Amino acid sequence: MLFVLGLVAMSAWANFVLAADFGIEPINNVINLATGDPRVIAVRIIQILLTFLGLVALVLIIYAGFLWMTSSGEEDKITQAKRILKNAFIGLLIIISSWAITTFIIAQFLAAIGGSANIGGGGGNLINPGLGAIGACTVESFYPENGQTDVARNTSIIITFKEKIKTNSGVCVDENGISCTCDAVDCNKIDPTTIRIYKNDLGDACSSGTCPATSSNTNIIDAVASVSTDFKTLVLVPTNYLGNPITNVLYSVKITSDLKKDDGINPPKSMFKTCYKDYFQWGFEVGTRLDLTPPRVVYGKIFPRPDNIQDLQNMTAPPVAARGLITVNSCPNYYQASKIISVAAGGGSLAADASPLNYQGNLTEFKVAIAPTSTSTARLFDGNNNSILLGSADFDSQNNARFGDYFTFHAPNRNLGNSWIVTLSPEILADSLTVGNQPYVFYSSTSTQPANYIYVDPLACDVSEQADKIATILNGHNQSVNIQHDADTDFITLTAKVAGADGNNIAVSTTNPAALRMVPLTGGKDRKDTSQINDKKDVPMNSVIQINFSEAVNPLQVAGLASEVSDYIRVVNASSTSRNASSSCSLDSQCKSYKCQNLECVGNYIAGKFLVSNVYRTVEFISDNECGMNGCGEKIYCLPANSHLKVEMKSADLKSCLTSTDCIPFSPFNTCSSTLLTYKTCQNSETKNYPTAAGTLNGIIDTAINSFDGDRSVYSDGPLAFYNDNNAATSSNIGDNYLWTFYVNDIINLNPPVIQSITPTNATEGVTLVEPIKISWNSLMMNSSLTTGSRVITTGTTSIVHKLLNLWSAAPTGMGYWVASDNLDTNSDGEPDKTDTLLKHSTLSESMSYRAQAGSGLRDIYQNCFKPSAGAGCAATSTNPSCCSGVPTSTLGLDGNCQ
């Protein structure tokens, strides 16, 4: 037993040695301690010493084993071996315990004072467990990224959550430091007890839960907080620059449990209540520079690309919608519980009774007979054929005998030879009807029922009236098909909402084919046409407009409903003759909004929403015009068919000046000069403007508050005029407002995306601890869908959880993970056509297994959902829709993940 324990100890010690990061690097064949926080180096030195002690213990265990194996039965040698093995094993346990305790205590100490280094070992990033709030928990995105270096001193700090923030407590304070509801005027300073920004070398001055007096508080307390219109994003702008112009400075940001979620629960819960730790914390390194480079749209990384001439379409055959039929032959079954009709005693038998269970068979009459040798047992026979024994049951202390699922028989007074005839009506289950992904259930109750229940009249069945009831419910809730039912007919016509061959895959079924005769949807055909591409190819209606910036931008000006950000970014009719809101119209194409109602234009832009993603570097627009459903039963939205659209983006006004004295802090922009704008600005010797935006923030800006550079001149000209990217080669416009135009056809693209490759590949060993997981797609992806966690897709009244991008370890850790992407132009046509996705993460733990996941909630640029078992090495099938470790499967755990 001791020998086996020794082997176990050796294995444990081997894992410990493999897991430890001792922070030493061989340089020119000389071992040098890695540079870093001296507290961390001290811990590593302790670990090195413990390592040598552990090696000594291992040698002793091996020596004891050698003595024992070569003892040849000599009792003295065996006793000596036992003693050495026992003491060495105890010593090894003490060493391992010492290592664990030391690492834990130092990790907690550094976490409390704001350390940011990895102190090693299999525990991963032990000193920053608060990073676990991003990815698997409530944090969606943040900037600067964890571990980012050379961050500009004039940066903003941004955090986006997956749930709404409760802004009336723990977020903002007024000028007097009193907690208040965040707004843009009287309550816009950060609450320093909740939002802690501090230098690592000084530590968190508010770590005790209260902050010291302002004069001695080393945390950043002068910062303005802004909250997005959806109450999910916090933008923090320090009043003074971070760091200094001489040396790099490490910073940490900690959001405590005082930040509450606004989910209607009272009292409100911490935003991080369900996370690895009840707070969120990350760190980055601020460099010595100021960011004076304005953001710009990356050339060649917008979708759709600029297009000057509409394609010529010649449709040779129109698309045909699949059609099916439901014929009501009789009214479907509604739920009816089993009932006891009568219990009739045989000759000489005393009265008895019975209680129904959930029998669903065809028998309605049964015979219960007392066993011929004992009154404690009864037997059950088919009432129509007394020779068929259905079972037997013993009476309990309450004189009840339960016969399977038939009924419970109660006979308090019984004698040998007694018998009874029990008549019952069996339980009848409700029939169901399924159309597409939506199930419907038939019922007879007059009380309120769920929206997908279809009423059946229990007193009289009229098949045409029943067909009308079915059609009414399907019309109101089904997203797959259009319904037609003519009065006084017993059939319902189903037509796929989106014409094309995909409609043939819409499933229609019922549990009662005798009552409802189903003709599946067939006949769907894709359109056939020829087209002439005149400039660039026109894009499908279900395209998502995507804009990629050169750097992170402030999301408050570019994210939200079109109505909320129309002053900064919008999509409009590109025609120069398009009409403003309230103008008379007869066609949608006459209006800037492509929406004509009651002979009047409604709005000055296309309705929809703008989304920010990719660490705040990507903005996407999705129309709110529903036009079909993707393969996951999720609504897709379309831009106006056969339209000519324009995207307009506004640059913010620049910081103004009155005299050159105002420009002294902005060297080398030292001169206050008149400009083509209506105000003076600070300029350098080349008459270029100081790029920082005015305090009103009336246009697009980056995280350093630099105004948008629409013409890509590297300097900010302000909102003078529109730079047209369609004429990039010849444009001479001076001004940083930006636009481009493109054409939309009347085609819907329903081809789902496919993963072409994943790095590292499945079951790879020895992966670099900071290496992101790279997923290469065969198409351009919708960046705002490339996020972490899961998403609920509701089809009718059915809700299904679809997984997104996730990463988890074999043992719970404070690991955090987030997503960044890059679009590639693989065919050199000037338009991105494929996306590489990076699943970034905090430092992984050595000698630990990890699992990554890409789920069906991910979508391409046409809003088509990803099919997890489609792709290289994992062929999709209807019976095996998931892919686990490269193998198609239909078996998942209760949580929807691979087992």
Strand-helix topology:
Blueprint: H1 2-19, E1 24-27, E2 30-33, H2 38-69, H3 75-113, E3 139-143, E4 157-161, E5 172-173, E6 179-180, E7 189-190, E8 195-199, E9 223-227, E10 233-238, E11 249-255, E12 280-286, E13 297-303, E14 312-317, E15 323-328, E16 339-345, E17 353-356, E18 365-370, E19 377-382, E20 385-394, E21 400-403, E22 407-410, E23 419-425, E24 432-435, E25 438-443, E26 453-455, H4 463-477, E27 481-484, E28 491-496, E29 508-510, E30 516-522, E31 528-532, E32 545-549, E33 560-561, H5 562-565, E34 569-573, E35 596-597, E36 600-601, E37 608-613, E38 618-623, E39 626-629, E40 635-637, E41 643-649, E42 671-673, E43 681-683, E44 722-724, E45 737-744, E46 755-759, E47 773-777, E48 790-795, E49 798-803, E50 805-809, E51 817-824, E52 834-841, E53 850-854, E54 882-884, E55 887-889
Parallel strand pairs: 25-26, 44-45
Antiparallel strand pairs: 1-2, 3-4, 4-10, 5-6, 5-7, 8-11, 9-10, 11-12, 13-32, 14-31, 15-28, 15-30, 16-23, 17-22, 18-19, 18-23, 19-20, 21-22, 24-25, 24-29, 27-28, 32-38, 33-37, 34-41, 35-36, 37-38, 39-40, 41-45, 42-43, 46-47, 47-52, 48-49, 50-53, 51-52, 54-55
Helix pairs in contact: 1-2, 1-3, 2-3
